[in-house]
Amino acid sequence: MCAAFSPLMALNPKTDNVRQATEQGVQHLFFVCEIYKTQISRGRFFLHEHPKAATSWGLWMIKEVLAMEGVVTVDCDQCAFGLWCTNGVGEALVKKPTKWMTNAKAIAVRLDRKCLNEKSEEKHRHCDLLKLDKKGMRVIERYPVALANAVSKGQRVELAQKGELATLEAGSHVDEPDVWQTHPEYYESIYDANSGTKLDAG
């Protein structure tokens, strides 16, 4: 649905197809915003993403969610997460400025990354999106792995802070101590999963 709110869409003639795409996009946004409100009212989390320049950020249903307590926005450049593509010149990073809306602070903090070209002396090349074919555009519609990991880690932190998720329920990460180090009491008694017989912990 992002295409319906692209600045490029505004340059197209107001044909029936364009009007229909816009109407469907607005209906979809209204629907998901109602879901976001439900998530917030029940103490749950949501994450919404659209291009930073999308006209959808100015729509009333988005503004209603933004006005709710605990909801924040954060901008990121996806090249900072390793989004790349290949064009006629070769491989290059894709900047793809993106805006996020969420009530999960731990996710927002992890998504707050900007293009390193702004601060680094060594500049990287960005892929020209206007010169990509359909296959190339499909590639950059996928989130880079580092970005997906950032969202997952942020969600995990939020759920753990609420007491809805424990290490043993989600598995440990390389940046966390082993469970036996933090909870040695879990290993004082070990039982066979099938017979229920107590096993020798040694």
Task: Describe what this molecule looks like in 3D.
There is one protein chain. This protein is α+β, with helices and mostly antiparallel strands and 202 residues long. The chain has 2 domains: 2-165, no CATH class; 166-202, no CATH class. The chain contains 7 helices and 7 strands. It has helices spanning 16-41, 60-66, 105-111, 134-140, 145-161, 167-170, 179-182, and strands at 47-51, 72-77, 84-87, 90-93, 97-102, 190-191, 198-199. The protein has a 3-stranded antiparallel β-sheet with strand order 1-5-2, covered by helices on one side. Strand 6 (190-191) and strand 7 (198-199) form a beta hairpin. Helix 3 (105-111) runs antiparallel to helix 5. It is globular and about 70 Å long. The model has no long low-confidence stretch (mean pLDDT 82).
Write a concise keyword list for the protein shown above:
three-stranded antiparallel β-sheet, 202 residues, 2 domains, alpha+beta, 14% strand, globular, two-stranded antiparallel sheet, 7 strands
Brief summary:
The chain is an alpha+beta fold and 202 residues long. The chain has seven helices and seven strands.
Total number of helices? 7
Strand order within the widest beta sheet: 1-5-2
Shape: globular
SSE pattern? HEHEEEEHHHHHEE
The poorly predicted ranges are none
Gap from first CA to last CA: 57 Å
Helical content band: 25-40%
Radius of gyration over alpha carbons? 22 Å
Structural class: alpha+beta
